[in-house]
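TL;DR need structure tokens for one chain.
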Amino acid sequence: METAMKSPGRKRDFSPVSWNQYFESMEDVVVENESGKDTFRIYKSGSEGPVLLLLHGGGHSALSWAVFTAAIISRIQCRIVALDLRSHGETKVKNSEDLSAETMAKDVGNVVEAMYGDLPPPIMLIGHSMGGAIAVHTAASNLVPSLLGLCMIDVVEGTAMDALNSMQNFLRGRPKTFKSLENAIEWSVKSGQIRNLESARVSMVGQVKQCEGALSPEVSKTVVEGIIEEEEEDEEGSESVNKRKKEDDTEAKKDHPYTWRIELAKTEKYWDGWFRGLSNLFLSCPIPKLLLLAGVDRLDKDLTIGQMQGKFQMQVLPQCGHAVHEDAPDKVAEAVATFLIRHRFTEPIGGFQCVFPGC
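>> reply
TL;DR here they are.
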């Protein structure tokens, strides 16, 4: 019977899974500022131990940490706070266009202050990709007074800066819309964006949203951009081409009611600021540091020297894509748990044994 169930012909389940299968609670934290009120969505688990404040990558959401959260909570005493960064997930801010590293780092500090007041518990910042860069900017600006550790997941200045040139091509290559959540989840797994179906089923819900009306504002803007490009390329007959393109797209919207929550292509002006100078900023933070990478080839010169000098601990997790914490949540949980226990920041639970050798 079991063999029959595991046969390759078995249809995989791409249906979405709710956040509450992995997190204990969800709340919206209100931060007041000059322009009014911003509301940040957080997901929480655990009741004692240090707080692991989790910052997701560009386009993702706090839900990308769901499976990791279940894995780490079962290994060590800790509290999880996974945050939807501005313009991502269910967070609602007045100035959603501003995705500068400075603004996002301030957001993290403001959320910590709104949650804990003047006496925050010990906090470790853990960030993936863009979120890793924001974690470093937050730490370097001393915006979290009780910070005890810092972890970057698969973000290295040298590699990130090199990759920026091809980022727009990557974004253009993604589907603009999806027929359903199932369709989006299936695409994320089959395209290799998320290599772990369990994580994709809970996290893709935070990456896409239902289009508003027949034609969502995001998609209509994309169409307009496409039209401008076409006019530049071909002046003659462009009107009929444009009209046909608009009609086709309106028709497509009826069949494809889901689109991306954030248009990452429009955040390009901030990319340089997220990553430039990141390696030295990371090395300058005077707290225990951990770097988790999908491949050792990702190290740049500054980090290679810093690693040789023992300025941070490093773990390479092969067989992972860029979304390391989604592809291998147990391995990432083991690495983070080992780091925290080694520094005596927490206690193991459930007989968890440190598995990694000293890095």
